[in-house]
Design goal:
five-stranded mixed beta barrel, Spore Coat Polysaccharide Biosynthesis Protein SpsA, Chain A, alpha/beta, two-stranded parallel ribbon, 13 strands, 12 helices
């Protein structure tokens, strides 16, 4: 028997969004990371992600990973979050280090926590479908603490700029073991993957905090020891971690952690929901062609701070 803790949501908002800099730079020359932008003048992408997180965890168990350099943008969006739940990185060392810092923080507060990782810079045309999948994957991970669960979206047109998860079987009514990961394949390879039943990796991950940290300890034990020791020495003060971050390598969570331990991974298909990571100007343009009539995120409360409007930026570019 395993002890099962409460579900925690970790929202990942520490990226720089470099591929969209041409669209996220203001007339004054300030580049705004895409998670702090709005698609049509409403809430920011980060605020949308926080609403998704609230569907699976209460506010006191929602943590957000951010960058110190982005404080001017996240300080308003996270005004309702307790300071101890705002995990500030001195600098960006890749998704792997940001997630590791969050996991080390959570395990000190809840050693048996069930954790769901959520990107803060994605868009969903059908939020209800994704929310149902989030609830299901959180339940599966809490019930099976020996596995790590991923969400995989049903692919649309093959895309060589996305990552794919190849399940061991083509079932769509439950989770399957993971046979392989393929990151940014050629167009012919992407077409073949879609035909084989591959799913798009949406980078939503659920598992026990102990299981996730166990994967790090197996392949990145030095980073776990260094960052864990620094965090304890700092007494949880994220502002004291700059020196340790200077010594850490960049770590990509998908490439350097997940793909090295496929035996414990399971993937749950998400029905078609209009998911996109807005990772390129082209994918952003596709979303902006069909604005929603209204937000499908029930209970959404925007701070109304006048976020950079990506639709206006795109129109200005044209």
């Amino acid at each position: 028997m395993h002890s099962v803790g409460d579900t925690w949501a970790i929202v990942l908002a520490g990226g720089d969004g470099r591929r969209l800099h041409a669209l996220t730079t203001t007339l004054g020359g300030v580049t705004v990371p895409k998670q702090y932008c709005s698609l049509w003048g409403g809430p920011s992408l980060l605020e949308d992600a926080l609403v998704r997180a609230a569907a699976i965890a209460p506010l006191r168990r929602i943590c957000t990973v951010v960058g110190a350099a982005h404080r001017r943008w996240w300080s308003t969006s996270l005004a309702q979050q307790a300071g101890e739940n705002i995990i500030v990185q001195p600098r960006n060392r890749g998704t792997g280090i940001g997630i590791l810092l969050a996991l080390l923080h959570v395990i000190e507060r809840d050693p048996y926590a069930n954790v769901v990782l959520l990107p803060a810079d994605h868009y969903l045309r059908d939020e209800r479908t994704m929310l149902a999948s989030l609830e299901r994957v959180a339940f599966l991970a809490a019930d099976d603490t020996d596995s790590v669960y991923l969400l995989g979206a049903e692919p649309g047109a093959p895309d060589s700029e996305l990552g794919y998860i190849v399940p061991e079987d083509r079932r769509r009514d439950g989770a399957s073991r993971v046979r392989d990961f393929v990151e940014k394949p050629s167009v012919p390879r992407a077409e073949a993957l879609v035909q084989e039943g591959a799913l798009v990796n949406v980078f939503i991950v659920a598992g026990s905090v102990g299981m996730l940290l166990g994967m790090y300890k197996k392949f990145h034990s030095r980073e776990v020891m260094a960052l864990g020791g620094a965090l304890r020495a700092a007494g949880g003060d994220f502002g004291q971690l700059a020196h340790t971050y200077d010594q850490l390598p960049d770590v990509d969570f998908s490439r350097d952690v997940l793909t090295r331990e496929t035996s414990v991974l399971r993937v749950l298909p998400v029905p078609p929901c209009g998911w996109t990571d807005l990772g390129t100007p082209e994918r952003l343009a596709e979303v902006l062609k069909v604005p929603p009539r209204q937000s499908s995120l029930a209970g959404h409360r925007s701070t109304g701070s006048g976020y950079l409007n990506l639709a206006s930026q795109w129109q200005g570019r044209e």
